[in-house]
Amino acid sequence: MLSDISLKEILIPPAKLYFVGLGGIAMSATASIAKNKGFEVLGSDSQGLYSPSKEILKNSDILCFLGYDKQHIIESHASLYILSAGESESNPEVDYIIKNNLPRTSFAELLYELSKDKLRVVVAGTHGKSTTTGFLGHLLKNLDDSSFMTGAVSQNYQNNFSVGDGHYFVFEGDEYKSQFDDPTPKFHYYKPDVLVLTNLEFDHPDVFSNLQAMEDEFAELIDKMPEDGLIIYNADDAVLTKLVHRSNISSVSYGVHNEADYKIEQAQYGKDFTSIDVSNKFSKNVASKLLGATEQYKIQLPGEINIYNALASIATLRTLGFSQEQIALDLLSFKGIKRRFEMVGVKSNITVIDDYAHHPTAVRETLKAAKLKFPQAKIWAVFEPHTFSRTKATLDDLITSFDLADEVLISEIYPAREKINTATISSTEVINAIKNKNSKMEGHVRLVHNKKEAIETLKIEAKPSDVVIVMAVGAFNRLAYELMEVF
């Protein structure tokens, strides 16, 4: 919201920065990065702080007021206020900032200013952003002492950011709006030098009217790339392929099913890791001395979705000049992102997995990964629909996403930023639609009204050797960990 000149004038350490909505995962990380760079940082959030932001702020020794009060703003005397996209003028602190015309910006704009001396690698797409960013951040941290910030916590570092002295800064490029009154997708503000595109499907119906509206934003992101920029894209995604081919920016493709510069020739799913053979069109075959060598890699993470995530990282780093040998070791050592097929534990021989899946494709791919890793197990899917708008807009895809589950428990819809009295769909309607689409799900998909009911159902019915996957974003967030206490 500020001009570049204004931000440059303000952002001179040790200027004081105040974050409204500091408890958000990206806000707490951005605040920590700013403090690492010499700024004085404080902020506020609603009545409680939750993991992982609570630990991130504690480790960074950042003061966070609990509860919003305009007096916090008056007494802060900050040089700049950073507003979360989830806060609006109904927040007394935001209201005071706007009415008094105090300098404000989004965390995305701030991050660009904190990273503009680096080559910015931005990962964008509907699915796989966090894990792909996690892979790239982990690899570049180890290979180059580079920096990264993801939208979820890396299991390697128990953190979602790292600040180093290397050449690169890796960001998760979110397409959601930057502030309540700034509909600009966050990824535009990052101004990528290297853009990694994972896939593109319709999402965020509260912001985008249809898939074309999302395509337009991604097209604009590509159009704004510098002339010497680089795009790494998924050749199996027809929409992305179309958008990239319209551009004159240098591009490199990766794929599992379609021809690509980096293509999976073979994948073997094992109990502890997945082995992949990657055909690299740019690498010379030692035997034939022709271009088109096959390279071998291994990853710890299961499922085809994680092959895509790893392949995007391989294609990016090989194109940036890192060797197969350099990449292979750190690729295998990456443990994954918390809440992305996170193995919470095994209790009474029942395996519990926590996942963030809330889009139909993510649900489908999570269950597909579970079937590959646990082919003989009975799979329980516990799903919390996220927002009325997304649930209604994606219903046709959602009702086929649970086909690989043996038992499905669906909670009441978590409204998030939406109002319950504006509900346009119910969980009962979702359940009935699933049954109507697939008669085999009759008797195997049901409603659980709350977390207590879900726990009681699973405590009674889940048996040894079963696998329980919790896919939730809201009220059921901690369910996987609570199940470990009752099994």
Describe the structure.
The structure is a single chain. This protein has 487 residues and is an alpha/beta fold. The protein has 3 domains: 4-106, Rossmann fold, CATH 3.40.50.720; 117-333, UDP-N-acetylmuramoyl-L-alanine:D-glutamate ligase (3-Layer(aba) Sandwich), CATH 3.40.1190.10; 342-486, Mur ligase, C-terminal domain (Protein-Tyrosine Phosphatase, Chain A), CATH 3.90.190. The protein has 18 helices and 23 strands. It has a 10-stranded mixed β-sheet with strand order 8-7-9-6-12-13-14-15-16-17, sandwiched between helices. Helix 4 crosses helix 5 and helix 9 packs parallel to helix 10. It is globular. The protein starts with a helix and ends with a helix.
Number of distinct helices: 18
Please report the total strand number as a whole number.
23
| Major β-sheet strand ordering | 8-7-9-6-12-13-14-15-16-17
Tally of separate domains = 3
Secondary-structure-derived class? alpha/beta
As residue ranges, the low-confidence spans are none
| Gyration radius, in Å | 23 Å
The span between the termini is: 50 Å
What is the fold-level CATH name, i.e. the topology of the largest domain? UDP-N-acetylmuramoyl-L-alanine:D-glutamate ligase
Which percent band covers the strand fraction?
25-35%
- How much helicity do the residues have? 25-40%
Q: What summary fits the major beta sheet?
A: 10 strands, mixed
CATH class of the largest domain: Alpha Beta
Mean pLDDT: 92
CATH architecture of the largest domain: 3-Layer(aba) Sandwich
CATH superfamily heading of the largest domain: Mur-like, catalytic domain
Morphology: globular
